[in-house]
TrEMBL record:
Keywords: ANK repeat, Repeat. The lineage of its organism: Eukaryota, Fungi, Dikarya, Ascomycota, Pezizomycotina. InterPro entries: Ankyrin_rpt (IPR002110), Ankyrin_rpt-contain_sf (IPR036770), Multifunctional_regulatory (IPR050745). Transmembrane segments: none annotated. It comes from Trematosphaeria pertusa. The keyword Glycoprotein does not apply. This is Ankyrin. PANTHER family: ANKYRIN REPEAT AND SOCS BOX PROTEIN 2, MYOTROPHIN. It comes from the Eukaryota.
């Protein structure tokens, strides 16, 4: 475990500048050359482009995994932006390319995001290890809630979003690795996110049960409310217990496991909502209702 995490009052931040003159005579040709891996033409046209157009070309090359073109652009001084980091996050090779050119592992991007959070969301184990070995701070990330415009959101130092993503997508081994590298458990709601949450790819039924087992083994309360994301004491901004998350997102097998291990279906949030209330979004014949009506799981 590292002796200490990087202490940055204000991590580096990348914006997303726009091309000021998209109708420039050779701009489209340059971007097309980057997109279709015509390195020679891209370099020939590069000297005539504004900085933002050069960065757009770099991003197109990375989006298409044309790493040789991207490398040549970087060698010629093209600067990266927030989109560059997002594009690179989809490929371990592209990530390593950025580091070849001095990328700061704790750089924040538009919306308060970080490269570590992005690769955790893809469950990319090798990339996660690579970033942690280079000092990535798992507590940096976006706030849980904000009313600010996306271009005004900055990285905060006590974000639990990366741990939440790991609970929802990764293995217990990866979650443990984040803890070993200084992730603060109390910033997050991992048991809730393992039980249910939005996913950009389908998650098979019961797939998150090993994570639930691991987290309960860490001593997390199976009936805890999601207090780490609350906005105020009356419960605004919260959904409730892990069971409520499983129900809202229709995770039948995860809900079954929680009930079998002590989840209380009658427990209420600070504003008086129970798991059974949450289940009203599902039709009466839904399997979740069968579980909630099962007398074995009655607590009161």
């Amino acid at each position: 475990m590292p002796s200490s995490l990087p202490t940055l009052e204000e991590p580096p931040f990348l914006d997303w500048p726009l091309i000021q003159n998209p109708e420039h005579a050779t701009c489209r040709e340059f971007l097309s050359a980057c997109q279709y891996n015509n390195t020679a033409l891209a370099l020939q046209l590069a000297s005539d482009q504004e900085p933002a157009a050069l960065t757009f070309g770099l991003n197109r090359a990375l989006d298409c995994l044309h790493l040789q073109t991207a490398r040549q652009l970087l060698l010629n001084g093209v600067q990266w932006d927030a989109q560059t980091v997002m594009s690179a996050s989809n490929s371990f090779s592209a990530i390593k390319l950025l580091f070849d050119f001095g990328f700061n592992v704790n750089t924040g991007v538009l919306g308060g995001d970080t490269l570590l959070r992005m690769v955790v969301s893809r469950n990319d184990g090798p990339a996660i290890r690579f970033l942690l070995e280079r000092g990535a701070n798992p507590n940096l990330g976006p706030p849980h809630f904000t009313n600010a415009r996306i271009d005004q959101i900055r990285v905060i130092s006590n974000s639990g979003v990366t741990l939440n993503q790991a609970a929802a997508r990764c293995t217990p081994e990866i979650f443990s690795l984040l803890l070993d590298h200084g992730a603060v458990l109390s910033n997050s709601i991992p048991l809730h996110r393992a039980a249910g949450g939005r996913a950009d790819v389908p998650i098979p039924p019961g797939e998150r049960i090993p994570m639930l087992e691991y987290l309960v083994g860490l001593g997390l309360d199976i009936n805890a409310m999601d207090d780490a994301i609350k906005i105020c004491d009356d419960g605004r901004g919260q959904r409730g217990s892990p069971l409520m998350y499983a129900i809202v997102y229709g995770r039948v097998e995860e809900a079954r496991w929680l009930l079998e291990h002590g989840a209380d279906p009658d427990l209420k949030t600070p504003y008086g909502v129970s798991a059974k209330d949450r289940a009203k979004i599902h039709p009466a014949e839904h399997e979740l209702w069968t579980l909630l009506r099962d007398p074995r799981f009655k607590r009161h």
